Amino acid sequence: DTAVSQTPKYLVTQMGNDKSIKCEQNLGHDTMYWYKQDSKKFLKIMFSYNNKELIINETVPNRFSPKSPDKAHLNLHINSLELGDSAVYFCASSQGGPGDTQYFGPGTRLTVL
Amino acid sequence: QKEVEQNSGPLSVPEGAIASLNCTYSDRGSQSFFWYRQYSGKSPELIMFIYSNGDKEDGRFTAQLNKASQYVSLLIRDSQPSDSATYLCAVNFSGGSNYKLTFGKGTLLTVNP
Q1: How does DSSP assign B58-92, residue by residue?
Q2: B107 or A56: which carries more pLDDT confidence?
Q3: What percent helix, strand, coil does chain A show, rounded to 5?
Q4: What is the pLDDT of residues A62-93, one digit of tens each?
Q5: Which end of chain B is more exposed for a tag (fewer CB within 10 A), N or C?
Q6: Nearest 5°: CA angle at A60, between A58 and A66?
Q7: Which of A:43-72 have CB within 8 Å of B?
Q8: Between chains, do A96 and B99 touch, taking CB under 8 Å as contact?
């Protein structure tokens, strides 16, 4: 069983479109995250939810909107896609608490043309 | 701005040698430190975490933490070609959300057969 899964694995789209990435974890963790990894491999936190409550909201354009329908799911919706949004987006989860181990999903490679 | 610094490499070592990866961080009060390994095209996976000053060993891997000097290192003994990957240092900074990790930009390690 996959612990943290993401769909789709690849996403190719045109500038200006709206797209969503879905994430699910079956680890029973309380906290989920979205990270962006750019072409230089820099992994940066975007959002984090704990039990469906937003607890981290980094400096991210308003075009990005996370949604957590329950603590096992955290989706990412992106409006009006731009070229600079091209990256690999990773979902992760952890049990929570100070510096718990984070388990990463396989990533979604987004390419904006 | 709380930062995590790593030498981006690439670091190249022969098979069987010791690979030494270093990381410095800016916040003296940081509590938790992690090393993640990321193979090309894959997601990060945890290798080790360390909370206390000193050494922590797990198989061929040893994490070393020196809070006074604000650095954490990872030693890989008897390096194997399968260890070739990017190694990400991550720090849970104090004073902010307990659920947030800040990652360094990673060090690319190549182990030559």
Answers
A1: ETTEEEEEETTTTEEEEEESS--GGG-EEEEEEEE
A2: B107
A3: 5, 55, 40
A4: 999 999 999 999 999 999 999 999 999 999 99
A5: N
A6: 85
A7: 43-45, 48, 50, 55-56
A8: yes
